[in-house]
Amino acid sequence: MVELDGVSKAYGAKIAVDRVTLRARPGTIFGLLGPNGAGKTSTIRMMLGITLPDSGTVRLFGEPFRRRLLPRVGYLPEERGLYRRMKVLDQLVFLGELHGLEREEAARRSRHWCERLEIAGSLSSTCAELSKGMQQKIQFAGTLLHEPEIVIMDEPFSGLDPVNTSLLREILLELRTRATIILSTHQMENAERMCDEICLINAGRVALDGRIAEAKARYPSDRVVIEFEGDDSFLNADSVASLQRTPGRAEVRLKDGHDPAALLREAVRCARITRFEVAQPSLEEIFVRTVK
Q: Which domains does the chain have, with CATH numbers?
């Protein structure tokens, strides 16, 4: 649905995107990840034709980028772009009309999405009267009014509390059955729970890509979760690189080349072990290791 092949973009002497290649398949949530200034937003803007690549190619729906394809795409930018003095319903209807909907149909869909997003009570309010989280949900609704086949979302959870983050996450997972979703986010927990595949960009280049399980398999399973009763002196073993402790529980990261089984033998000798789990690194750990 979305393909970038060797795409590069520079602004003067600054190379923002350096030969990035990625592919987002139909019916998936594709995570575009990276630290601040990595080139994620620049990459998204080239997908949408807001800027053109200096080299490389962009394809949508299996064909070279053409502006006539954009009505089939929905885009939620990181920056809010609402008219502060316009009422919520009027604003959403206006956005729907820009996407080619008749006014009555745009109003019907707007009311539906406001109900789904639990903001129907604010339809007659102006955006200036609403919180940042409420404004974010209005932009989210506006992105989906025309039922796009590709949905590109740049930091969709910005300004949301945990309850509303969960609500948007639920909706995106439902949308995956009828749209390809490209999700750019700093929140690794959401990316890990939602994404089928990821592309981690650092300093404009692809640092890691593929299915999450495959990406995790490239890193050693050196994290151990231990729950125990009794003596905790085994946590002082030479194999322990770092640890986080709470009463009766420890999360241990082992030094390179050390076997978790050796730590288990030492732990059993000292304490009663109720849980010993060798865990794969989280996506957040992989993010930090890759970027560093």
A: 2-217 (3.40.50.300), 223-291 (3.30.70)
